[in-house]
Amino acid sequence: MPPTPTPSPTGQRFLTPAQTAEQIAANGERVLRQSMSRTIVLSLLAGFYIAFGAQLATMVTHDTIPIIGDGLTRFVAGSVFSLGLMLVVVCGAELFTGNSMLTKAALHGRIPWHKIAQNWVVVLLGNLVGSFFFAWLMFHSQLWESGQVAQRAIAIAEAKTELSFGAALIRGILCNWLVCLAVFMATAARDVTGKILACYVPIMAFVASGFEHSIANMYFIPTGLLLARLPGFESADLTWGGFMANIVPVTLGNIIGGVVFVALAYWFIYLRGSRIH
Predict the structure, then answer these.
(1) Measured between alpha carbons, how far is 248 from 222 in angstroms, rounded to an integer?
(2) What's the Cα-to-Cα distance from 28 to each of 20, 47, 190, rounded to whole Å?
(3) I need a surface site. Which of 33, 150, 228, 268 has the fewest CB within 10 A?
(4) What are the TM regions of this chain, as residue ranges (predicted)?
(5) Could you tell me which of 234, 244, 241, 245 has the C-alpha nearest to residue 151?
């Protein structure tokens, strides 16, 4: 991630599922060539890009529930949040959740397993730092002073930290199942319009459904924590312990969702038996 386009047959407007699976496996070879410094910068960018979508979702929905209700508010939030993956895919960045797809390259014999572990550690930390820094920027932008933005941001963070381990794990699985399907479809698309649409629908669906994305939560919860320190916005329910209690199960769920239900499933269907030695 991001996918590297390869020439498609004349007249073919998108890759077939089999071609897409092969393309994703081939794209995984970048971890063998990409420098550590480049991986770090790309992972920071992904943290910024997902945070852009997260703050936009907070901003545009801070006063919509009384007007259009909770269901349509979730739809609006998901629609604008999809900006984050669009930026990752079209502009290029290293996103931890999308990099669950690297396991397809390892199963196909294109990269060693230890390279996946190395990439995941670096990218997860880079995404974390990028998300934290963006939360700090938004806090000091004072944009939260408009309307009920601060209350909305705190409410989002509180709802996430109140989840049980099991609920957070399952919501994480369901989330990255859709995120990785979005990456799969964006890889299949041969033009920017197709890639944007491929990102939009699954991402809108996971946000509207209430699923949990680890990197987004690295923005949502710290933002709530920063705002909850201000007079008039105090919240005893928001703590860094609550942050970790959310991030750990959601991250594990994201790994399971992306690896098992997308990477492993499509490797089994299309690439099993054609392993590169």
Answers:
(1) 15
(2) 12, 20, 19
(3) 33
(4) 40-60, 72-96, 117-139, 168-189, 196-220, 240-269
(5) 234
State the CATH number of the domain containing residue 75.
1.20.1080.10
Query: Residue length, the chain?
Result: 277
pLDDT tens-digit readout, 110-167: 999 999 999 999 999 999 999 999 999 999 999 999 889 999 999 999 999 999 999 9
Residue 213 maps to a domain? yes
Cα distance between residue 1 and residue 22, in whole Å: 14
Closest CA to 176 of 264, 55, 59, 275: 264
**Domains: count for the chain:** 1
> Is the pLDDT assigned to residue 275 strictly greater than 80?
no
Question: Could you report the per-residue pLDDT of 4-54, keeping only the tens digit for each?
Answer: 555 555 467 899 999 999 999 999 999 999 999 999 999 999 999 999 999
pLDDT above 90 covers what percent of the chain?
90
Q: Do the domain assignments include residue 193?
A: yes
What pLDDT sits at residue 181?
Answer: 98
**Residue 239 lies in domain:** 17-271
Model pLDDT for residues 213-246, shown as the tens digit of each residue: 999 999 999 999 999 999 989 888 899 999 999 9
| DSSP letter for each residue of 96-143 | TTGGGGHHHHHHTTSS-HHHHHHHHHHHHHHHHHHHHHHHHHHHHHTG
User: Cα angle vertex 118, ends 51, 112, to 5°?
Assistant: 125
Task: Give the C-alpha separation, 245 to 247, whole Å.
Answer: 6
Domain-located, residue 176: yes
Angle at the Cα of 154 (from 241 to 162), degrees rounded to 5?
45
Location of structure tokens 């939360």: 135
